[in-house]
Specification:
mainly alpha; 39% helix; two-stranded parallel ribbon; 77 residues; single chain
């Protein structure tokens, strides 16, 4: 599922689906908060934060190797 990041929050009607539903853009801080709230349910806080940071930095990344390692059991610490 594709999503679009926007720089500022805006009022939106999600039809009950909630922020981030298909066709409903999230601002970067809102996206990071939503990711964090879900990720820490199954990952340590530090690892969730590192995954979020590396994901948001993807447009400037030279490689996704470090991120993919964090997403596999090899990334467990």
């Amino acid at each position: 599922m594709a999503f679009k990041l926007i720089e500022s929050a805006q009022t939106r009607d999600t039809g009950g689906a909630g922020a981030g539903a298909l066709g409903d853009s999230l601002a970067k801080p809102e996206l990071a908060r939503k990711f964090h709230d879900n990720a820490v349910r199954s990952l340590p806080e530090e690892r969730a934060a590192e995954i979020a940071a590396r994901t948001l930095a993807l447009p400037d990344a030279q490689s996704v190797e470090d991120l993919t390692a964090l997403l596999t059991s090899a990334g467990e610490r």
